Amino acid sequence: MPQISWSELVAAAAAGELVSFPTDTVPALAARPEAGDRIYAAKQRPPDKPLILMGACLDDLRPYIAGTAAEWAEWTAIAVRHWPGALTLVLPASDRLPPAINPQNTGTVGVRLPAHPLALHLLSHTGPLATTSANRSGEPPLATMTAIESSFPQAFTLAPAATADIYQILDIPMPPADHPQGSGLPSTVAQWQDHGWKVLRPGPITLPTAEHP
Questions:
Q1: Which of 63, 99, 101, 59 is nearest to 79 (CA)?
Q2: For the chain, what percent of residues have pLDDT higher than 70?
């Protein structure tokens, strides 16, 4: 079981290895954007299901997104209101987006800032990561780090002592590895279409512009 230190986890992610970490919704299985194919292989995930790009701030995600100044004003307003949080925005992708995130090249990318201090701390060191829930395709998301380590032995996770150290540094309570690591509820997914939002998956966050186009 590849349980490693904090510095080793950052290095593993930077090297394109599979890593797993808690988020505010469900734990993530993640890799560098250009190594997204490793996630598809591990999950046996169909190529018609794009990965989500998580970052520590909107500016980190900006290079992967294409839009006009007016659109950026709309997107930034939503991001400021709801991020970090359980909201995934599906926006037009720039030509910098690696095909490994969206193999069918739909021209879009889902982006999110998770409301979890450990996840944001990691993303601030690694840069944006391609992410998805940690489960085999078609199965429910795994909620505990213990279950993830059993089902995905190839994914690097923090060792218990390293986890305790990081939670102490971040000054937040640490849930046991065999307890749920987030709310268990998937994020709201909303796509930018025709100058407004179309909700693709309802979730904890409601966008007024989607309800009242």
A1: 59
A2: 97
